[in-house]
Amino acid sequence: xxxxxxxxxxxxxxxxxxxxxxxxxxxxxxxxxxxxxxxxxxxxxxxxxxxxxxxxxxxxxxxxxxxxxxxxxxxxxxxxxxxxxxxxxxxxxxxxxxxxxxxxxxxxxxxxxxxxxxxxxxxxxxxxxxxxxxxxxxxxxxxxxxxxxxxxxxxxxxxxxxxxxxxxxxxxxxxxxxxxxxxxxxxxxxxxxxxxxxxxxxxxxxxxxxxxxxxxxxxxxxxxxxxxxxxxxxxxxxxxxxxxxxxxxxxxxxxxxxxxxxxxxxxxxxxxxxxxxxxxxxxxxxxxxxxxxxxxxxxxxxxxxxxxxxxxxxxxxxxxxxxxxxxxxxxxxxxxxxxxxxxxxxxxxxxxxxxxxxxxxxxxxxxxxxxxxxxxxxxxxxxxxxxxxxxxxxxxxxxxxxxxxxxxxxxxxxxxxxx
Length: 419
Hints:
- The chain folds into four domains: 3-151, Alpha Horseshoe (Serine Threonine Protein Phosphatase 5, Tetratricopeptide repeat); 166-233, no CATH class; 243-313, no CATH class; 320-418, no CATH class.
- It is 48% helix and 16% strand.
- The protein contains 18 helices and 14 strands.
- The protein has helices spanning 3-15, 22-34, 39-50, 54-67, 72-84, 88-101, 106-119, 122-135, 140-151, 166-179, 205-214, 221-233, 243-247, 295-298, 302-314, 349-352, 356-366, 389-397, and strands spanning 184-187, 190-194, 200-204, 250-255, 268-270, 276-281, 287-289, 320-326, 329-332, 339-342, 371-375, 381-385, 405-412, 415-418.
- Strands 1, 2, 3, 4, 5, 6 and 7 form a seven-stranded antiparallel β-sheet that branches. Strands 9-8-10-12-11-13-14 form a seven-stranded antiparallel β-sheet.
- Strand 11 and strand 12 (381-385) form a beta hairpin.
- Residues 153-161 have low confidence and may be disordered.
């Protein structure tokens, strides 16, 4: 990996809210010292905020504001740090100032939504997120905030007597899971938890933290995460219904080669282009991989699971919309861009490309094939005409997110293949 690719990978981790390692943070600091402008200095500050070090980030952000007083991302970064330090009044004053300058900026709306979340003002937060998603349906951060709001009931709670930041909560939860002998693994912002029935469940740590913050009269942190670990450890795969009812909930997902080592025991088969096909149960709260050991008790075969999963996905093709790639982010395009996104956003969009219904939707929009495909974002699939050299190069330059599938592929009516 070249130096520029490594830097872009580190920046993507920061944008995804992940905590950097010491070497990654040192790399970012060194590049920020050598590079003019606020962008990399701001990335350093965001990296510190992601690690729960808002007090260390605050002087950096205040210096950036002095140097770039009209820069909206700088002021939003400062507002986020102030929110992390529970200085809600200062953050709101700054946000109102920015909103007066940029009333329709989705980034401003998202930070206002975070302020609403912190204050327990759920309706205000929902309104801001709804407005932000109306302006940009592909905004990953807005989608995460929407999921937090949907996952947690947020009546205005009294603030906890002792403020617990998210990194501290995550560390305490990991320790509680270890004490409870619950198998788990961190993956981006999620936890992969070994279910009591032998499967694997994906748990959104952000939603768990929001629920903790919103809990009224919550016990101490240790007691809270111990109870949470016991609940997570008792999760089942959901395989308690009749086989016909289970079949209606099955969906296929595509994962990169070797993913089976991370989803131990989950049913899978080789997929196209060196990828692997796994099967999940539709669930409003958890992503649950179907355990291979659960087939016989449920009266299912691997072949029946595969057929049902693809049949269910065939019945729900996703919308195809024109998009563009702006500084590594996918945005809706107002004019023809040569790039389209299959974007239902439910995690199944990569697999949808292999259905006949989705191929028809794609041909109705692109008008020709074969297509070039990028699966670097789990929440959508990007495509372009193979004859469009500029669009193909844009897909090749796109840096995959940590949970995406790297590389580009070729899609025809016969299926997906490696380029």
